[in-house]
Specification:
This protein is an alpha/beta fold. The chain is 45% helix and 17% strand. The chain is built from 14 helices and 12 strands.
Length: 338
Amino acid sequence: MKHQLDFEKPITELQNKLDELRAHPEKHSLGISFEEEIQIIEKKLEETRRQVFLNLNAWQRVQLARHPKRPYTLDYFQKTFSDFQELHGDRMFAEDHAMVGGFAKLGEHRVVVIGTQKGRDTKENILRNFGSAHPEGYRKALRLMRLASKFGLPIITVIDTAGAYPGVAAEERHIAEAIAVNLREMTLLEVPIIAAIIGEGGSGGALGIGVADRVLILENAYYSVISPEGCAAILWKDRANAGKAAAALKITAKDLLHLKLVDEVVPEPLGGAHTDTLGTALNLKTHLLKHLEQILALPVAERLKKRYEKFRAHGHFLEKAVENGEMKPAKAAEPAVA
């Protein structure tokens, strides 16, 4: 099995044993039939697969979110949507291949789709800048969103990025300003907006196209203000503590749903989205259509109010009051902007 993750080793060993037995049936154990031995191994393989993938920890889910065979944004544009027509350029500086978008159809709805795209190999990763967009990528996204607003089309954003590009060139062209403008404008756009996190949802690079009426996340994706490795490097001065950081950050789909930072978790096939790309894409389509119909039923004023309140409610903290020199028990404070 190519691109084997550490926790997949028991599955790989059983699969190799099964493949070897099928290729050389004369090697099967004495005392039982060939078919019985195959069935025993297949049953053990299925049990092991379920035991492994139903009990993944936070770091293992991060690894699965980064799996090189995992479907990327353009895969979903082709399988979840139909009639995708890509548009290019920000009309100010350049074309950013890390940010893709254009017109498409979701079921019977005409929409504008926008997303961050990674590469499959070294050549494409260089072209796509490993999925990390420059300022012109976010300005292209904003141009497409304004185009959607002009024609009254819903906006669907697909997020899969480790973060916006942090290089000097991006800073020179004001990437923080580009993302900040997107945050403001997405709050005010009157058309429905749905964001779907399909892999990595890294920091402001993800949030730059993530302000939406509904935020969905695939089961093995993550959404975080910082990567586990970056957090570990800051807190423990050692990136080897990435697993510990991933658990502390509460970045898995289940944690995010509990914290009300996402609206729904989209289930994946056992083993991850890459084991059934088409099935995952069609499942995402079902969830997108459900939420789009609900959002379209809302009056514009109510839609904007709910979108604003949704993000104002993100981030909670605890405070302790001091009376007569004594610390009182902590209590939950009002929601605050994270």
